[in-house]
Amino acid sequence: MEKEHLKLRKNQFRKTNLKGFTLLESLVALMMLSLIFLLFFSVLENSQAIIKQLETSEEKAWHIFLIQLENELEGCSIEEVYSNKIGLKKKQAKHLVWIENKLGKIVKVENGGYQPMLIKVKEASFDKKMASVEVTVLFENNQKFVGRWSLIEENRDEQTL
């Protein structure tokens, strides 16, 4: 009789299904949740680094533009300076080459064609100040850069030769 009573008791425990998580399932769920949070925070950190890099891309573009403009000015004399463009005259050429602000770009216009030199420009201005030319550029992300070149007067050099 005791044996039957013990068997009944064991069967009762087996038949009752308790719904819930085991310790192992809880640990796996907690580990997955922590991995999701780690991935989320690493994505946030990387996005901040990407934003910073995108901001400096305008600075790189500005420096490349300065090098290009310096190379253009090297063999040229500056004939005319307006608020939105500069007229350059090459020594061997009879026509003017223009560096101007057009439709959000600074372009080089020569013989009817144009070459983009700087893009994503919100505003650009060219000023002649005494013996120098100053270029001020405001990019679409509101970063502002200023470049200045000293002018060499071609007439004095030609007269001394």
From TrEMBL:
Keywords from the UniProt entry: Competence, Membrane, Transmembrane, Transmembrane helix
InterPro entries per the UniProt record, alphabetical: ComGF (IPR016977), N_methyl_site (IPR012902)
A GO BP annotation: establishment of competence for transformation
Cellular component, GO annotation: cell surface
Localization (cell): Cell surface
Major site of localization recorded for this protein: other
Pfam families linked: ComGF
Listed transmembrane segments: 21-44
Record NCBIfam families: IV_pilin_GFxxxE, pilin_ComGF
Listed name of the protein: Prepilin-type N-terminal cleavage/methylation domain-containing protein
